């Protein structure tokens, strides 16, 4: 039997602010679903189980064209963002060590508190995940080729940046990251 998530989740490249002991801290929002979020790059673990947060949810464009010029125009459009105030409850804490620099990264798996009251946040998350999924499948289609060069390579680079991947990743590494993103939508 394979574990499947209750809610689809998608990687997200943005930050959030949270309050702890009278101070405001900044952390990275690594992925999001209607059920909760993975918070990383925490300066410290919050002292309480439920924290008030401000979430920055970008509105991803849906890429519906294979035309390079239109894709470039889409990438240049300013990204619309919406800020939401909500509360998150910690359900899992981890500390990871990077083998490269032995740097500790604090992560929290969290769930939303009082979500039925925040329909606008649920709709923004639904839209973000739907658009991310659509664009991710489009990117997988572009990557599914024996020859990736020229215009096709440029399209891949633009779309991968729209989805939040690092600029200039080599195609095999990007391909693995995109496959992992696809798998993590449900599992």
For the record, the CATH class is Mainly Beta
- Secondary-structure element string: EEEEHEEHHH
Structural class determined from secondary elements = alpha+beta
Strand order of the largest sheet: 1-2-3-6-5-4
Shape: elongated
> What fraction of the residues are assigned to beta strands by DSSP?
35-45%
Helix content: 25-40%
What do we call the CATH homologous superfamily? Answer: predicted glycosyltransferase like domains
What number of structural domains do the residues give? 1
The count of β-strands is 6
Please name the CATH architecture.
Beta Barrel
**How many DSSP helices?**
4
Q: Whole-Å distance between the termini?
A: 12 Å
* CATH topology call: Thrombin, subunit H
Write down the overall mean pLDDT: 87
Largest sheet: 6 strands, antiparallel, barrel
Rg from Cα:
18 Å
pLDDT < 50 runs, ≥5 residues: none
List keywords for this structure.
187 residues; 35% strand; 6-stranded antiparallel barrel; 4 helices; alpha+beta; 6 strands; Thrombin, subunit H
Structure overview:
Helix 1 runs parallel beside helix 3 (150-162). The chain is built from four helices and six strands; from the N terminus they run E-E-E-E-H-E-E-H-H-H. It is elongated, with a radius of gyration of 18 Å. It has helices at residues 68-76, 119-143, 150-162, 171-184, and strands spanning 9-20, 23-33, 36-40, 50-59, 80-97, 104-113. The chain has 187 residues and is an alpha+beta fold. Helices cover 33% and strands 35% of the residues. Strand 2 and strand 3 (36-40) form a beta hairpin. The model has no long low-confidence stretch (mean pLDDT 87). A six-stranded antiparallel barrel has the order 1-2-3-6-5-4. It has one domain (9-184): predicted glycosyltransferase like domains (Thrombin, subunit H, Beta Barrel), CATH 2.40.10.220.
């Amino acid at each position: 039997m394979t574990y499947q998530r209750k809610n689809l989740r998608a990687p997200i490249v943005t930050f959030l602010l949270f309050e702890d002991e009278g101070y405001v801290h900044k952390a990275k929002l690594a992925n999001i679903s209607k059920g909760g979020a993975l918070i990383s790059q925490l300066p410290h673990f919050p002292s309480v189980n439920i924290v008030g947060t401000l979430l920055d949810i970008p509105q991803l464009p849906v890429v519906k064209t294979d035309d390079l010029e239109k894709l470039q125009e889409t990438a240049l459009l300013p990204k619309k963002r919406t800020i939401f105030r909500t509360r998150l409850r910690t359900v899992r804490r981890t500390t990871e060590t990077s083998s490269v620099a032995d740097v500790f990264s604090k992560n929290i798996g969290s769930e939303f508190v009082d979500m039925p009251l925040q329909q606008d946040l649920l709709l923004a998350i639904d839209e973000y995940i739907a658009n991310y999924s659509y664009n991710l499948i489009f990117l997988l289609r572009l990557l599914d080729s024996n020859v990736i060069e020229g215009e096709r390579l440029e399209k891949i680079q633009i779309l991968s940046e729209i989805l939040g991947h690092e600029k200039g990743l080599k195609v095999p590494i990007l391909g693995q990251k995109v496959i992992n993103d696809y798998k993590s939508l449900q599992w």
